[in-house]
Structures are given as structure tokens and as C-alpha cells.
Amino acid sequence: MKNIVIIGGGVGGTLVSNYLSHKLKEEIREGKTKITLISDRDKQLYEPGLLYMIFNRMEEGELFKELTYLLDPMIDLKIERATKIVADENYVETEKGRYDYDYLVIATGSRIVPEEVPGLVEGGHWFYNVEGARRLRDELARFKGGKIVVSIMGIPHKCPVAPIEVTFMLHDFFKLHRLRDKVEILYTYPINRVFTLENVTEVVVEYFNERGIKYKTFFNPIEVDAKNKKIITLEGEEEPYDLLIAIPPHKGSQLIIDSGLGDRDGWVPTDRYTLKVEGYDNIYAVGDATNLPVSKAGSVAHFEAEVISENIAAQIKGLPPTARYFGKAMCFIEMGFDLGTYIWFDYETPPKLVKPNKFIHWSKIAYNRLYWLTARGVL
């Protein structure tokens, strides 16, 4: 029997599992192949929904689904915390046991580490996990005026366009509540423009200027003075704020660091085309876990999952694994409560940005409702 083990119950892990169960259904029924998904949580979180939750545009309960609902019944789900990957001996240790594998898929995602910026935990807010989104939602509901700073405190981070989206949505939120003239919004970015991609920067700056949103570049926070409400930067600036919305530093899973499979920040060295973990022919990495120069976004995990599942299935069937990933990424960008655009690109195609319009915004809202079909491998 061929054992496939997948670690991680996020979008990448569930998609690879479901795609493989579909491609290998005969082999599974005949007892020749087994798919095991190991997850430390029994529910999946729809992370893009956190952005809407802070403005009360999605409820917390809408953001979760049981893994038993999302996964094909032929997949063996283990709700356990993986503690170590012993790659040279082809097994995974968990808090409850050991799982040998012929093929391993690492879908361990990324995590925020706000504690790595001194003072951020005490002095800032964020929406990159549920607890943070709850706190920020309540704070925004109470906020009646002052200076809001949206500050990116580390690259890479999940959903690269989310800081832009929250900034535009803040504008519309306070305009809706007739408080926009009492709220100053400042967006900061670590490099010499407001986003890594130049054509996105051009459009964003145009809309920032139209909406009276201020921005600063070459802005690299190293400390938050929570008592005096100031951000201290590497460049020697001290930026005051009344409300700080931070995009905290991100790292890969502690499991990857403990297993010696990642770099110092826990990102897994991954071949950009085959998605195999460097140095191993039977281990793949998907989604946020990789060190690839692509967005840490759900669409990337989706496109990568297709390649990984096709190649593992081919190998089990005795066929050549010829599928390749070419860096495909596609991201919606909300530019307020009723305007949106999207961008797509790959390793060889420069980024293309669609003119912002209301139809794309409503397409994104519709996708929020349809996402669970994607996780099930249907859409």
C-alpha cells in the first residue's frame, strides 16, 4: 500500500487531499493507496473573511467549517498536532503516534508573530487571526475620531493586498458613519512604493489621493511605544497614532523549524516548478509554507494543489509526473465597500490589473459565499 500523508487542514491541505481522493478513488477502494490528513484543528477558517468581519460584513460563524464536511469520506482525518517530520526516514510524529509515508505534502501555512515587534502586542491591533479581528471590530465600532495608521511590519505576509483593502474599507466605513472628516488615515509600506507591484501601486496611489488617504514609504517599524502611542522606525521616525492596525511579521510553522526542513523563519525551500521540497523526491510543499517568490494567497495554494495532486497520482499509477507550476496567482482587491478589482500574473506574465468596478466587488462577495465549494474541490 502507498501511504500519502498531508499535514495541515487549511485550503492547501484540503484541496490536495480532495483532488488526490478523486484521482485515486479506485486505488483507495482496492486498498492500494491510503490518504491521511493530519490537522491540529477540526475546523477550517476562511481567512479572507476576517477582513469583512472587522466591519461586521461577515459574522464569525460564517468563517468556519468542519473538516469532516470539507473532506471526501475516503480520506483518513486525524485531529492531532504533528510534532516532527523525520524526512530521512519517511515518517511524521504527532502527539498521539507515528505515521509512515511514501509521499508527504507539507501544508502547514504561516503564522503571525506580533511579539517580535516590541510593544506591538500591547499597543496595536490586527485582523490576521480571529482573536485580533474580534478586538479590532470592537475598537472600530468605538472609534469616533483621530489618526489611524495601517502599517506593514514584515514581508512576506498572508494576502499581500489585504493592507490596501483594509485602508480603502476604513475610508468607506467612516464615510458611512459620517466620521470621515474626523479620521486621518495613514498607510505605510517598507519599500519605496505602496506595494511590491508597480502597476498596482499606480492605481492605489491614484485612489488614495482621491480619497484623502495619506501614505508613507520606506517605513520599517522596529518598536511600538504603546504608552505614548508612537511607532518607532528603522529610519529614525516616530509616528504618532490613535489606532494602530498592524500587519504583524509572519513566520512558517514551528513544526518546520523543529524538523530542520525550513530556513530560519520556517519557510520550506521548494522547487518553483515541481513544488518538491529541495533535497527530497517524495515531499511536496503547498501554499504559505513554501519559500517561493509568489503571493501567500489562497489562489496560489489552489493552483499549486492541482499540480501536486496530479504528480503524486501519476507516480502512484506508474505514470510520469509531468505537471508543473508556473507561478500562477490571482487576487481580488477590494477598494471600498462597493468597488473592486483583481490582479493575475505568473512567473513569465507581468501583473495585469483590471479597471476597478462594482461588478468585481460583487463577484468577490459571491466568492466569499462559494468558497467552501472550492475547499471541497468542487469549484
Automatic annotation (TrEMBL):
A Pfam family found in this protein is Pyr_redox_2
> Gene3D superfamilies recorded for this chain?
FAD/NAD(P)-binding domain
Q: Entry's InterPro entries?
A: FAD/NAD-bd_sf (IPR036188), FAD/NAD-binding_dom (IPR023753), SQRD (IPR052541)
Annotated GO molecular function terms are:
oxidoreductase activity
Q: Where is the FAD/NAD(P)-binding domain?
A: 3-291
Per the record, the coiled-coil ranges are none
Q: Transmembrane stretches, by residue range?
A: none
State the name under which the record lists this protein: FAD/NAD(P)-binding domain-containing protein
Q: Which organism is it from?
A: Archaeoglobus sulfaticallidus PM70-1
